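An instance follows:
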Amino acid sequence: MNRRKLREHLFKLIYLYAFNGIDAMPEQIDLYFEGLDEVVWDEDRTFLRDRFFRITEKIPEIDARLNETARGWKTNRFGSCDLAILRLAVYEMLYDEQIPQGVAINEAVELAKTYGGDESPAFVNGILGEIARTAGV
């Protein structure tokens, strides 16, 4: 499976996390994979599961960064899709040295175009651009 497709699945799992909490996620991940029309190979399932749990471990730090960056907004006011996209992108920008910041931002904007509202791409791009500037990434 290519990186873009893996990223899309991660976004969806992070989105599910917002409604289920961490304790329910092992079962939710299994149900997610069972409900797919496409074949997801074992190595991709392992990658997605491992990456999901690494991201969720960092959510307190990621959300703190988002709260600092989004002036006048807190993560509890973000749209659920936007928040999941931002959590994934910030993780990639700050904790995954293999993904260039420009790729993380571009892919997040593309996810926002597909899954977010009309204002989502600009919102996501603005937040991530500011994080990139202030983090010196």
User: Anything to note?
Assistant: Residues 3-20 form the longest helix (18 residues).
